[in-house]
User: Fold this.
Amino acid sequence: MTAQRGGWLDAVRRPDLPPAGEYALRLADDALVLAQRTAEWVSAAPEMEEDVALANIALDLLGQARSLLTRAGELEGRGRDEDALASHRTEREFVNCQLVELPNGDFARTMARLLVFAAYQVELYSRLTGSADEVLAAVAAKAVKEVRYHRDHATQWVVRLGDGTAQSAARMQAGLDAVWPHADELFEADELTDALVRTGVAVDPSSLLAPWSAYVGTVVEQATLVRPDVTALPGGGRRGIHTEALAPLLAELQHIARSHPGARW
Amino acid sequence: MSAPTVEEVRAVVATVPDPEIPVLTIADLGVLRDVRVGPDAHVEVDITPTYSGCPAMDAIRDDVHGRLRDAGWDDADVRLVLAPAWTTDDMSADGRRKLEAYGIAPPAPAGSPGPVPLGMPSLSVPEGLRCPRCGSTQTRELAHFGSTPCKALWSCRACGEPFDSFKVLR
Assistant:
């Protein structure tokens, strides 16, 4: 990714918030976009308990996103609140990782993505509790308890489906193979995180790779699946580069607020 | 009007019920964190969410404001505080008793092991909570997630009924 700095991609988007605000926005957008994706399962999950579980997980993520968006707006200091940031930014202004915007696919792929992302969030939030930014530390201390439940839920399903029938194992493996190339982006450090690590605000994303890898490796092994050996995709979500899946998601997410200016959730 | 005391304000707001579990007050739950009264009679009430996305917080905030207005204390702020993060250990013993009488298995008290191991989670189904309907411990978890973020769904093999369990969070 470093080689592309200064090229055309940089012209697409430069951070327009102060560094700590931009960092809060990255964490917020990850949670917001995955909340929206996850909520698509409600009424369509394989069983009613799963409708409830996925609705709860989406709600936790939405709650985290609200606190983080509010903090990003405060740090920006230009009067944008959680609603303005959620509903009145364009696709290129979103800085979530591409992993969370990918279409759900089947249930196995959804659980593969949740395993990858929740395992990352557990490592992230458990360290962010020591952030020099008191609000980020408080949000993390609250959220880490929630994402442990998410990780646990994904783990149970990945093992059950992976160590299940030939059909369920094949689909679970396909799910892992589909999301794995998008995992590397979670662990990419850049100039922004480097600077914020020095001031104690941010967690170095690259430091999360080893503990994340150990956890998901154990799950994949217990599920009798094969850890995907795939080339990472280039990513770019932190700079506003997204897949074609994000814009339709945002159109749905933002529709009410944009159609009815001033509406609040 | 003279400034109320902290105790007077606390007595008024402590009885606000939780909108999802109306048998519990926000004081029982530990959602009511702090009450302060300034020298100018300005009232501040701190509340904390059980879960980040808890949809009841807006209703609780409105209810607290309403109680304060009814008592004649219009100059009031209700603040949402996140730190320190709420845990089920903040729930009062009285709250646990009321919860069980209402048909929801209360969270295990402080000092008992938490539900979520730090490492690899157990793949076995949690068992053995006391059924709030018949008292049997022949019970098992049906789903980690229940009708609200703070609850899990269990079932009792003795009386055959499902029941909610307030999840341990700490």
Observations:
- The interface with chain B takes residues 49-50, 52-53, 55-57, 59-64, 66-67, 134-135, 137-139, 141-143, 145-146, 148-149, 151-153, 155-156, 159-160, 215, 218-219, 222 of chain A (CB under 8 Å).
- The first helix of chain A runs from residue 8 to 12.
- Confidence is low (pLDDT under 50) at residues 1-6 of chain A.
